[in-house]
Amino acid sequence: MTDTLDLVTAQARQAALVGGPDQVLTTEQVRSFVLESLAGADLDGRSVCLVVPDGTRSCPLPLLLATVHQALVGRVTRLTALVALGTHVAMSERALATHLGYAREGLDATYPGMTVLNHEWWTPETFVSLGTISADRVSELTGGLLSMPADVALNRAVVEHDVALVVGPVFPHEVVGFSGGNKYFFPGIAGPEIIDLTHWVGALITSSEIIGTRGITPVRALINEAATMIPGEKLALCVVAQSGTSSLHAASFGSTEAAWAAAAEVSAQTHVRYLDAPVRRVVSLIPTKYEDIWTAAKGFYKLEPVVADGGEVIIYAPHISEISVVHQEIYEIGYHCRDYFVKQWDRFKDVHWGVLAHSTHLRGAGTFDEVEGERCRVNVTLVTAIPEEKVRGANLGYLSPDEFDLAAYETDPDTFVVPNAGEVLFRLR
Description:
The protein has two domains: about 1-270, LarA, N-terminal domain (Rossmann fold), CATH 3.40.50.11440; about 275-429, LarA, C-terminal domain (2-enoyl-CoA Hydratase, Chain A, domain 1, Alpha-Beta Complex). The protein contains 19 helices and 20 strands.
């Protein structure tokens, strides 16, 4: 890992950076940095596809997008903003308008000349194949965890523009280590094979092991390999958000690798907090930007590392009424530890591996064998509007929101209550 850290540090030095872990940037500092960075980029007379996050990622996106638009309008031949949904629910027009900052005046008035697209991952015509990562190369990049070829399919909007410019935040991430950079392509706007492959590699390593890991993790290595197949130029404006606010600690600009590396170094210092001793119970208060358990699961795996063996994570999200709107397979397989699937592979190998990976993310570490069955290290309880039979059927604990006494937990010395859960990673010293 030392070699990959050295590589990331070297890449970070190649990016322009403003701010740092102990700073909060003003709006004018952000605007000046974006305008200056893009003024120096070779974008005149070229078409640009902006790859931006969906509503589950927090940053002052309207400020960033308005400034990018100001810097590029009149210079570029075509400007498209593509929302990187991954396999999340599509954003409605109303949600897009608020998320991107054109709610009051409308898209044409706010961003003249710019097109906005949802990543329609459910439509085969969305994608174009860029090639294949060979089985031998997959094995090499993953340290032998998997050996199989993978088709690298990407939203054709990126391929049909001269330049792809990623605009979005960097946080600790359960699949790749730290999000951002080339991850906005894979899985953000990618086809199913590369999504399943990368997510299952992360699940094999386990979320608790890979989340918040600095350097080039095996999943980041796969993502970077896939990104080399993108024909156009790849740039990134990566930001480090002050969690729970609309402010930024830092912003970086450069290649997708360099800008990500610079932002990840800051995120590692601002989005990872340490406890001196494990806690018996966590109550994760889930913000409304997470609309189902598929996305709200971040409230589990960013707290799992600080929970004592046999402890509990309570996901408090009374606004959520579905485990997943899109991925109904999760109701069939439920939530289990990695070994539950690995040791019964013939039974589960045909389920989308991204779904299997998500299942392990919310269930955490554990063991399985045919005699003892499944034993998970931590208990998971939902306090949501999801019916009890669905929750228990998915192998999770249930508490009714009407009977849940948050104030009692807040005064309980054995309970750690975390507001705005899902962005900051907690670890033991």
